[in-house]
Design brief:
Blueprint: E1 2-6, E2 22-23, H1 29-38, H2 43-59, H3 73-82, E3 83-84, E4 89-96, E5 101-107, E6 118-126, E7 131-134, E8 138-139, E9 157-158, H4 161-174, E10 208-211, H5 221-231, E11 244-248, H6 255-262, E12 265-269, H7 275-281, H8 290-298, E13 309-315, H9 323-332, E14 338-344, H10 358-370, H11 394-409
Parallel strand pairs: 2-3, 7-10, 10-11, 11-12, 12-13, 13-14
Antiparallel strand pairs: 1-4, 4-5, 5-6, 6-7, 8-9
Helix pairs in contact: 1-2, 4-5, 9-10
This protein binds S-adenosyl-L-homocysteine and iron/sulfur cluster.
S-adenosyl-L-homocysteine (SAH) is lined by residues 145, 147-148, 212, 216, 247-249, 269, 312, 314, 343, 345-346, 389-390.
Length: 410
């Protein structure tokens, strides 16, 4: 059971963009200063305006220059004549029986607003002690992991840094995380005190961000890096880098730079302990096999027992779930500060895989636990709204097709 709100044409929907106005959301601080210099401000003033804007955009969640009360009216007008503070349009917001929320967001192409818009999904998972936002990095994915529904969809394009951040900003707004915001009436499912949006620390609804939505973040490295550096900036959204996790299927050449330049937590979608099987499940393995991948993990900058790599392992019945697989997993990871996250396979229409039985998953987890690894089994969340790992975008596609059928038969 789920609740679905159709928020099309909501007041916060992205206004049609005009090509001459560019968005300030997603610019780095130097880029923001350059944008101010570009409208004629001298260096000192550009710096001051850039830091005011940063605060309004990321701390206060403002989308309208008119609300920037410490900026004179005339200059507010200059800003709105030249720039946008756009957010994605919310096409739909679904709320699962377990409190998970899934948004379908729509973006226009920033360079050419006349191109058809693209749609992506973002998921919010509330738990008693945290609230995790699962963010997309691409529209679809160029990789073709055989158990992942996103992998059956062709990539339309990379998301820009502003579009990646737009997911966080929009979710914060919907969850009442900005000052003056009001928590949704959710029967206590969203963490944090009711009606106290904008407060700091763990009382915020969104305490953690995982780059585990649609797409391979390391194939959109520059934009993901910029977005995550902005999200973790202490003068802005201020999420600790320890509460941000970047998940990769194993794009080895970008693992070291990600650790050095972004410095967030790392998750590796391992899923198999032999190259022949991993070639099939995660085909990027043909390019960057297990040896290379694990070597990149061993040398991941900042790795320590306090900052472990999470290895994700999807439990596929009779494919990768034997006792021998569990033992080999333990052997492969020896020497790497690691956590192992066992993910029950989430089915999607047309898949040939089944999820391992609970008894099998328990037995697998026991072997891994007995070897000294924490290996929580990830509880699937939001299955009723098709929001679980690897299911994103599918329902949207079905809806689109249904809508199209309805249109053609009308
Ligand atoms: N592209 C990145 C991040 C997005 S996928 C990556 O592959 O790491 C987030 C996690 O969900 C990955 O570990 C992915 O392998 C896993 N996943 C994909 N499809 C799944 C499915 N149907 N059931 C369970 N987990 C799945
Ligand atoms: Fe892409 Fe990750 Fe899905 Fe593989 S698991 S197809 S890398 S989104």
């Amino acid at each position: 059971m789920s609740i679905a709100l159709n928020l099309d044409h909501a007041s916060n929907a992205a206004r049609p963009t005009t090509p001459r106005r560019s968005s300030l959301v997603g610019l780095s601080k130097p880029q923001l200063r350059e944008a101010m210099a570009g409208i004629g401000l001298d260096e000192r003033e550009a710096k001051m305006r850039a830091s005011q804007l940063w605060n309004w955009i990321y701390v206060n969640g403002v989308t309208d220059f008119e609300r920037m009360s410490n900026i004179q009216k005339g200059f507010r007008q200059t800003l709105s004549d030249n720039f946008l503070l756009d957010r994605p349009e919310i096409v739909s917001e679904q709320i699962s029986i377990d409190g998970t929320r899934k948004w379908l967001f729509r973006y226009r192409d920033p360079k050419n607003p006349n191109l058809p818009p693209v749609e992506i999904e973002t998921v919010y998972i509330p738990e008693s002690d945290r609230g995790t936002l699962c963010v997309s990095s691409q529209v679809g994915c160029t990789l073709t992991c055989s158990f992942c529904h996103t992998g059956t969809q062709t990539l339309v394009r990379n998301l820009t840094a502003g579009e990646i951040l737009g997911q966080i900003l929009m979710a914060r707004e919907r969850l009442g995380d900005f000052p003056g915001g009001v928590r949704p009436d959710d029967g206590g499912l969203v963490p944090g005190p009711r009606g106290s949006g904008g407060s700091e620390g763990d009382s915020r609804a969104i305490t953690n961000v995982v780059m585990m939505g649609m797409g391979e973040p390391l194939y959109n490295y520059d934009n993901v890096k910029q977005a995550l550096l902005i999200a973790s900036d202490e003068a802005g959204i201020s999420l600790s880098k320890r509460r941000i996790t970047l998940s990769t299927s194993g794009v080895v050449p970008f693992i070291e730079p990600a650790g050095r330049e972004i410095g967030t937590m790392l998750a590796i979608s391992l899923h198999a302990v032999r190259d022949d099987l991993r070639d099939m499940l995660v085909p990027i393995n043909k390019k960057y096999p297990l040896n290379d991948l694990l070597e990149a993990c061993r040398t991941y900058p900042g790795l320590s027992n306090a900052r472990r790599i999470t290895f994700e392992y999807v439990m596929l019945k009779d494919i990768n779930d034997s006792d021998a697989d569990a033992r080999e997993l333990v052997r492969l990871l020896s020497g790497i500060p690691a956590k192992i996250n066992l993910i029950p396979f989430n089915p999607w229409p047309g898949t040939n895989y089944d999820c391992s039985s609970s008894a099998r998953i328990e037995r697998f987890a026991d072997i891994v636990n007995n070897a000294g690894y924490a290996s929580p089994v990830r509880t699937p969340r939001g299955r009723d709204i098709f929001a679980a790992c690897g299911q994103l975008k599918s329902e949207t596609e079905r809806l689109t097709k249904r809508d199209r059928d309805a249109l053609t038969s009308a």
